[in-house]
Amino acid sequence: MLLNFHKYQATGNDFIIIDDRERTFDITNNSLIQRLCHRKFGIGADGLILLRNEKEVDFKMLYFNADGYEGSMCGNGGRCVTAFAHKLMPSKTEFKFIAFDGLHKSAIKYLQNDGFIVKLEMQQVVAPQKIGSDFLLDTGSPHYVKFVNDVALTEVLLEGRNIRNSGPFLRNGVNVNFVEVNQQVLTMRTYERGVEDETLSCGTGATAAAIAAYWGKMIETNSVEIHTKGGNLNISFDASEKDIFTSVYLTGEATPVFEGKMHI
Predict the structure, then answer these.
(1) What is the pLDDT of residues 8-61, one digit of tens each?
(2) Which of 14, 16, 247, 260 has its CA 20 to 30 A from that of 8?
(3) Which residue among 43, 73, 80, 202 is the active-site one?
(4) Strands (DSSP E) found in the chain
(5) Under CATH, domain 125-252 is a member of which superfamily?
(6) Domain residue ranges in the chain
(7) Annotated catalytic residue, options 10, 74, 81, 145
């Protein structure tokens, strides 16, 4: 069988995207998803996304981590699948779609080089929980945020793996974000569960970092520039409600890389 696929990236977070509106892809075949995402024996990606038809919205996004299992919300993946949906429906620039954590709205803002700037509305976020000097919060996926003096010197793989596999998180895992604050700008590196490695960027992680920095009074702005290894993101939110962050938006580039066919 020939599988048609598309490869997209958003600030270095890369995804295989499949047009599965006919629902022919076997989502129970975890080993196939692992092989497709494998960087030596497959296409190579941080995760796989299926775009499916869904009543009353433009599409449904099904996201799978590189380990082959369905993941929770992926912010950069949501922006990439929006760019792909625009390819399928070129007359539309605004979309509503269902993901793991519920309804999202997204918009193609403008063309940049070979890709797009995509703005994605995230779910409301409950205020972070303090764990010592660190923070734990859910931005569609669970995130642990640790502020450091020099993120470039942080041993992300070692420290991230240790936190992700520690007692409270051993069963379900957690994404671990190491964040440096420089005035009102954040620089972030992320260890992602499911990938079990450092990734070049993480959209829900950037959202978590911005909200944790604001909640912890390390920044004062509610429109936050975040630097990742793969590029820059902007997180904006409304913090006027007690203990709830609303109107949360993740904005950044999303770019097609290549498309092809693979025998499976």
Answers:
(1) 999 999 999 999 999 999 999 999 999 999 999 999 999 999 999 999 999 999
(2) 247
(3) 202
(4) 2-10, 13-19, 47-52, 59-65, 94-99, 102-112, 115-121, 125-126, 129-131, 134-138, 142-147, 175-182, 185-192, 197-199, 223-228, 231-238, 244-263
(5) Diaminopimelate Epimerase; Chain A, domain 1 (3.10.310.10)
(6) 2-108+255-263, 125-252
(7) 74
pLDDT in tens, 232-247: 999 999 999 999 999 9
3-class SS of residue 264: coil
String of DSSP letters for 83-139: HHHHHHSTT--EEEEEETTEEEEEEEEEEETTEEEEEEEPPPEEPPEEETTEEEEES
Tell which residue, 211, 213, 170, 212, has the closest CA to residue 193. Answer: 170
8 A C-beta contact, residue 153 and residue 159: no
- Tokens representing 20 are 């599965």
- Provide the pLDDT confidence category of residue 113 given band limits of 50, 70 and 90: confident
Sign for the CA dihedral angle at 30, 71, 12, 14 comes to positive
Report the run of H or E that residue 204 belongs to, with start and end.
helix 203-215
Quick check: is 202 catalytic? yes
Q: How many CA atoms lie within 13 A of 149 on its CB side?
A: 0
Q: What is the pLDDT of residues 163-217, one digit of tens each?
A: 999 999 999 999 999 999 999 999 999 999 999 999 999 999 999 999 999 999 9
**Backbone dihedral region for residue 113 (phi beyond 0: left; psi -120 to 50: alpha; all else: beta):** left
Domain 2-108+255-263, what fold? Diaminopimelate Epimerase; Chain A, domain 1 (3.10.310)
Is 80 considered catalytic here?
A: no
2-108+255-263 and 125-252: same fold? yes
